[in-house]
Structure formats: C-alpha cells, structure tokens
Amino acid sequence: MFYPVFQQYNWQEVADSIYAQTSEDVLRALQRPRRTLEDFKALVSPAAKPFLERMAVESRALTRQRFGKTIQLYVPLYLSNVCQNICTYCAFSMDNHIPRKTLTDAEILQEVQAIKAMGYEHVLLVTGEASHEVGVAYLQNAIRLIKPFFAHISLEVQPLQEDEYALLKAEGLHTVLMYQETYHEANYKQYHPKGRKSNFVYRLATPDRLGKAGIHKIGLGTLIGLEDWRTDAFFTALHLQYLEQTYWQTKYSVSFPRLRPIAQEQGHKTFSKYMNDAELVQLICAYRLLRDDLEISMSTREQERFRDHAVQLGITSMSAGSKTNPGGYAVAPQSLEQFEISDERSPAVIAAMIKAQGYEPVWKDWDQTLC
C-alpha cells in the first residue's frame, strides 16, 4: 500500500527542498535522458522559470514521439449532484442548500443522445459522493445503459471497495479518476470537514484498490489552489511512481484542475489563483519530462487561449462542450453545476482548432474487443 511510502516523506521538508533547488539543479535535470523524482523537484521549482522555453520544446518533442500529433476528445456526463460530503471548494457540498438532481434511466438516455450527436465515443461519468443515491447498484445500471453507445467509459465518483471496482469493470468500466485533492495530510480535513471524503488515508488507498481490481487506467491529480502546487505535484509524482512499480499493467494519466468559481445560496464563491498560466505550463512540461508515456488531460476549466496553446505543449486529451450539471446537455440545463467552465466552445469548434494546429482530434482510440 502507498501510505507507508507516503509516510517516509515530510510535507515541509519536501517543500523546502523544492524551493532550495538552483539553476544548476535544473540544468542537471534537463541533461538527463531519464529523470528521477529529485530531478522533478528541480523542474517544478521556481529556479526552472528561466528554462521554461527549453522545457516546452522538449516536452512537445517527447509528446509527439510517443503519441504523435493527436489529441483525444472526451466529455463528462454528470449523473447526480447529490453529495454526502462537505467540501469547502465544491458546489455539490452537502451544506450548499440548492435543489439536487439524480438522473433516471430515461434521462440518462436523453443525455446520451445529446452527447452522441456531438460525436463522442469517450464518456466520463461523474456524480457527487452519495452511497445511497448513487452507489454501486446505480453506477452498475448506468454503465449497462450507456455501454452500447460508447467505446470507452470512465468514472469519477466516490471511492469504492476493490470488489466493487471489479464488478463495474465486468460491466464495461475502463478508467477511474481519483483525485487526492491535496497530499497535505495535516490540512486535508480543513477542506473536507465532514463525510467519507474527510478520511485522508482511505482516499489515498483508492488507487491501490483500483490496481488490485485490474482497472485499465487510473487518473491521478490534485486540486490546484488548496495547497502549494509544487509540493502537491511532487507527492502526485511519488504516488504515480509507486503505482507504476506496483501495478505495472495499468495505464496512468494526470490532470491539473485549477479551482473555479462555484454557485452557492448566497451567490458565487471565487478563489484566489495560486498558479498562473506560466506555472501551469511548467507543471505540464515537468510531468512530460518525467514520463514520456504519461497521458495528460486538460478540461474546460481552462480558458480558450490557454487551451489553444496547450495543444502543442504536452497534453494528450481534452474535454469540450462540457456541462458540469446533471441533465446539462438536454434534460435539466439549469440544474446545479459543480463548477463554472471557462471554455464554452463546441466540440466541433475545438476539433477545428486542433486540426488548424496540424494535430488530429481523436474521437475513438479504444474498442470493447480490447478488453
């Protein structure tokens, strides 16, 4: 399990080590053919700022060498905004007294029709964390309903047990995204004061349960804006390295969601931006220089101009035309959103933008026969 590995590191000592990196450390990291976690510290450190262009050039070359000039497209399908957790940054938080909705079978199929009309073959099912309303039985039924319509089904829901993941895998589940939000264990509970999500260790062990269940791909990440992003990036890379060594048959992806405004009873809640655009570019490039085969995803949280430029920097997949509320595509467009998106362009416009840069938008890169 990862937790004993995690406990060998101290948050503050890691942070101090990152901020103590020098230009010489960055140059040494850039010159290595294969980078270590110590090199990664240098690449995400403030000392790497003058080397950003060099990092971007190598990141682009490595990405093209491994993935070609392609960007895979996917779309989220929110099934429910009911949640039993209190999270200080999420509109779905239980203490946000706004009407909730969970899609019925007929409504799920209505949403599927709207998504299929946009051309999608890869879908990400998303719910709040509510074991009674959207537990394993609900998810099992939802996967059965949508399986005939999509080539690849991903999930971003509450942490489950190993046997529950195995059950959903048998139904047609390929990928699970499980974000730790932050690896700062001492501060984790201040962002998650109530509900099962407040259990830091149980959430941290979720990728282990996914690996044991044989899930094809696991997505990792933290929510940027909660704690120091450089230190969280190191711990995510540490977690990734452990998983790659332990569950070597599994594929992995990372993403870097920055906090977005959310709707609350008393109005919109906004957050200070802890990471600027140049720092996000640095983080994307640092991960590419660490792992040339790692899938890197970017959602519609980011603004149009940034996403346009990110196509050539190291990302491998993008969402487009996303709705972050259950029923958002056809059934209930006004229901509660998890967060406000920045890039509202349609999938067709995003595909055209990708083509204009000489890249190929990929709607399908997976088939059930590969399972």
Automatic annotation (TrEMBL):
It holds the Pfam family Radical_SAM. Keywords: 4Fe-4S, Iron, Iron-sulfur, Metal-binding, S-adenosyl-L-methionine. Residues 69-272 form the Radical SAM core domain. One of its GO terms (molecular function) is 4 iron, 4 sulfur cluster binding. CDD domains: Radical_SAM. Signal peptide: none annotated. Its cofactor is [4Fe-4S] cluster. Transmembrane segments: none annotated. One of its GO terms (biological process) is thiamine biosynthetic process. InterPro entries: Aldolase_TIM, BATS_dom, rSAM, rSAM_sf, ThiH, ThiH/NoCL/HydG-like. PANTHER family: 2-IMINOACETATE SYNTHASE (PTHR43583). NCBIfam families: thiH. This is 2-iminoacetate synthase ThiH. It comes from Chitinophaga parva. The lineage of its organism: Bacteria, Pseudomonadati, Bacteroidota, Chitinophagia, Chitinophagales. The gene is thiH.
